[in-house]
Every structure is written in structure tokens, then in C-alpha cells.
């Protein structure tokens, strides 16, 4: 790569890191071309953008991003590194878990999710169990609806009992 190509590549990475609030760093070294292509296909199907990056260029791009603290993610940049960008926080972790049922890699190096930094492959289960924004909103709506449903069912149940009693009394008279 020429110096100009590297500068352009760093600028593009910086723009992607600035625009994205969720990305994962994974070790995909020693995977065959067929396995990597399969991983890329699954990423594409799950709406995850995956690309292999050079560690030094990624570190320079991370240093250029203003307003985001990537913590000690820079320490994980050794060996082959792939970066996965996603709109859903737990989706790449679930994809990695599923993919590792048949392969020993990719290994999670780290993740950045809405200002939280996760480092190490031991964080994979915690990341996979994170709820997405839509799941959290659904849980909150469900919790808010539950008491309202109880009140409505209580009122309608009591109303029908009273109507039944009145009808019975009317028929007796």
C-alpha cells in the first residue's frame, strides 16, 4: 500500500468508527478461504458488515475518532483482525457463537457497544445475552400493559356479573 492509499484507508475506517456505535473485533487467522467466505455470507445475511483490517491502520483510525473512548481495545490488535459492524448489539456475538459450533474460530478479541468496551473471548456469552433496543422496548411495553389489562378485565368481568344479576332479577319480576 502506498502512503496515499493508507491515508485514504485510515480516513474510511475513522468515518466508519465514528458513524457506528457497535463493532466487534475478531481473530479470523488460520481459517480457510472457504470458511471465511461462509462467515462473510452469514454476516451479509444477518446485516453485519465484516472486513479484515490491518492492526496499525485500525489503531490510527481509533486514535483519530473524537468523542469515543475505545478503552483498551487497542491492546487486542495483534494477529489477524476482522471488524464487524452491526446495528444490533448482540447480533455479531450470536453469529460468532453459532459459527463456532462447527469451527474453532472466529475468536472474539473485543467489542464496543454504545460506549461500553468488552475485551476477551470470555465476554462472548455476556454479549450474546444482551438484549437489543427493540427487545428492551418490548419488555417495557409488556410490563406497562400487564396492570392495565388486569384492571380492564376486572372491570369487564364485574360489569357482566352485575348485568347478569339484573337480568335474572328482571326475569323473576
CATH topology (fold) name of the largest domain: Alpha-Beta Plaits
Helix fraction bin: 40-55%
| Overall number of structural domains | 2
CATH superfamily of the largest domain: Ribosomal protein L10, N-terminal RNA-binding domain
Mind summarizing the main beta sheet?
A: 5 strands, antiparallel
Query: What is the overall number of helices?
Result: 6
C-alpha termini separation: 99 Å
Structural class: alpha+beta
Which class of the largest domain in CATH terms?
Alpha Beta
Unreliable stretches covering 5 or more consecutive residues: none
Biggest β-sheet: strands ordered side by side in the sheet: 2-3-1-4-5
Can you describe this structure?
The chain is built from six helices and five strands, in the order αβαβαβαββαα. Helices cover 54% and strands 16% of the residues. The protein has 173 residues and is α+β, with helices and mostly antiparallel strands. The protein has a five-stranded antiparallel sheet with strand order 2-3-1-4-5. It has two domains: 3-130, Alpha-Beta Plaits (2-Layer Sandwich); 132-173. Strand 4 and strand 5 (116-119) form a beta hairpin. 20% of the residues are buried. It is elongated and about 100 Å long. The longest helix has 40 residues, at 133-172.
Amino acid at each position: 500500500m502506498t502512503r496515499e492509499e493508507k491515508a485514504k484507508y485510515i480516513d474510511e475506517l475513522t468515518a466508519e468508527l465514528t458513524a457506528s456505535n457497535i463493532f466487534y473485533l475478531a481473530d479470523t487467522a488460520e481459517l480457510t478461504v472457504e470458511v471465511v467466505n461462509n462467515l462473510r455470507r452469514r454476516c451479509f445475511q444477518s446485516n453485519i458488515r465484516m472486513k479484515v483490517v490491518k492492526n496499525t491502520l485500525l489503531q490510527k483510525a481509533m486514535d483519530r475518532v473524537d468523542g469515543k473512548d475505545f478503552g483498551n481495545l487497542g491492546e487486542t490488535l495483534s494477529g489477524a483482525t476482522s471488524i464487524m459492524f452491526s446495528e444490533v448489539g448482540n447480533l455479531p456475538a450470536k453469529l460468532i457463537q453459532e459459527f463456532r459450533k462447527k469451527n474453532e474460530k472466529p475468536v472474539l478479541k473485543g467489542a464496543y457497544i454504545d460506549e461500553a468496551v468488552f475485551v476477551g473471548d470470555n465476554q462472548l456469552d455476556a454479549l450474546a445475552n444482551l438484549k437489543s433496543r427493540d427487545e428492551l422496548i418490548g419488555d417495557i411495553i409488556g410490563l406497562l400493559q400487564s396492570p392495565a389489562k388486569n384492571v380492564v378485565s376486572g372491570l369487564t368481568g364485574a360489569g357482566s356479573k352485575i348485568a347478569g344479576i339484573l337480568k335474572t332479577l328482571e326475569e323473576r319480576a
